[in-house]
Amino acid sequence: MPLEETEAVVLKTSPCAEQDKIVVLFSRERGVLRGVAKGARKFGNRFGSSLEPLSIVRAFFYEKERRELVTISNCDLLESFFEAQRDPRVANTAAFFAELIEEFSPPLARDEDLYRLLTTVLRALAAGGDPAFLTAYYDVWFLRLNGLLPNLSRCRACRKPVSAGWLAPRRDGAFCPACAPVKKDELPAEAAAFLAWAKKNSPLRTAEHPFTPDELLRIRKALEAMIVFHLEREPKSLRFLNDAPRPADAKRREPV
Fold first, then answer.
1. Which residue has the higher pLDDT, 159 or 43?
2. Same structural domain for residues 26 and 146?
3. Digit-coded pLDDT (tens) for 22-35
4. For position 47, which CATH number holds?
5. Residue 192 backbone dihedrals phi, psi, to 5 degrees
6. Cβ-contact 102, 235 below 8 angstroms
7. Residues 53, 132: one domain?
8. Of the candidates 79, 101, 132, which is a domain's last residue?
9. CA 162 – CA 154 distance, rounded (Å)
């Protein structure tokens, strides 16, 4: 059993037996990888803090035939986002990023572009980027990289340009207000500008974007309606993300 290694992001861990952990990794070379970290729950174990969720690590593992889980023998911590996740908004946002990758990505399917997207938005969060903006940015690119972002610029019925309208029932395009058979999920007017901005700019430029919090909220609702449709359920982490108060809401609740 040759020892293999890969750079990876720790998506999540869960207890296994008395002393072990099940670890879900999103690796640069192997995609989603599930394994057992032997002894990871022991006090003073060799993994240290490398298995904290959303850490970037170099994982060492080996595989056995006819076993779904690899055995993770060690991890070197390359980059930690533990401190940034003390902020609940950052922690909820990062958990949402991780859940989408685990749910959508097939096991052992390498996706270098998606790996770069995840690590870049995590670094932008840690650098103090706006979680609401980075969530919208991630939604756009996650849909695009998975081939799930349709052409939203023209009405599926009359083919006229759409500035503001409604998502198609199967989330495979948009309708103008005159042609929409169902008016359930709104496509806001600012969505086109956001898609164009996200296509040309890095998420590390979060401070330079021209979108207001209310615009970002409307954009996210449209993008996440597509994600929920294709996943066929609402991600658990999305509920926490949407229930968390926005900064402006928190400010209004402060006693005078």
1. 159
2. no
3. 999 999 999 999 99
4. 2.40.50.140
5. -60, -40
6. no
7. no
8. 79
9. 5
Whether residue 90 sits in one domain with residue 61: no
Please, which residues have CB within 8 angstroms of residue 141's CB and are 6 or more apart in sequence? 117, 198
Q: Check whether residue 31 and residue 61 sit in a common domain.
A: yes
Going by their DSSP bridges, the two strands 20-27 and 31-37 should be labelled as antiparallel
Q: At 212, is the secondary structure helix, strand, or coil? A: coil
If asked whether residues 152 and 223 sit together in one domain, one would say yes
Would the pLDDT of 256 be above 60?
no
Q: Give the mean pLDDT of the chain.
A: 91
pTM of the predicted protein model: 0.90
Q: Which residues contact 179 (CB under 8 A, 6 or more apart)?
A: 155, 156, 157, 158
Contact of 212 with 193, CB cutoff 8 Å: no
Residues 69 and 90 both lie in one domain = no
Range of the domain at 68: 4-79
Q: Which of 185, 183, 190, 182 lies closest to 164 in space, CA to CA?
A: 190
- For residue 239, report the phi and psi dihedrals to the nearest 5 degrees: -65, -45
Q: Are residues 90 and 75 in the same domain?
A: no
Query: In this structure, are residues 225 and 232 in contact, taking their beta carbons and an 8 Å threshold?
Result: no
Residue 24's alpha-carbon distances to 3, 31, 66, 67, in angstroms, are 18, 10, 18, 15
62 with 115, same domain: the answer is no
Report pLDDT digits (tens) over 106-144.
888 999 999 999 999 999 999 999 999 999 999 999 999
Q: Which two tokens stand for residue 60?
A: 């060492």
